[in-house]
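Backbone geometry tokens:
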Amino acid sequence: MKSSAKKVELASVDDLFSTEESRADAQREKVVEIPLSELHPFKGHPFKVKDDEAMMETADSIKQYGVLVPAIARPDPEGGYELVAGHRRHRASELAEKASERPGTMKGAAYDGYFSP
């Protein structure tokens, strides 16, 4: 083989047959269902979630309509997902005996220092 042939770089099949829009779409945040058992609050979470009358109303609403506004979670390097926002919805989903919640995952979010106390 000639030495000049070794320097040739070929595009991958994905690059040849996908659009810039589809590649950009793959990088966007998406709303996905995650089992409640895989969600946990971030360390040092400053807010208290109470099982009061308002929580019971939220649980009843989730029983009837499901979770309408997604929570925000990010992948946890130790496993599962760390809740960034939506802790009340998470607890209400548990009380409503739902198997999963629909949080929007934050793909590519930096873990260290992000929303840390």
User: Anything to note?
Assistant: Confidence is low (pLDDT under 50) at residues 105-117. The two ends are 59 Å apart (CA to CA). The beta strands are 34-35, 39-41, 72-75, 81-85, 100-101, 104-105. Residues 53-65 form the longest helix (13 residues).
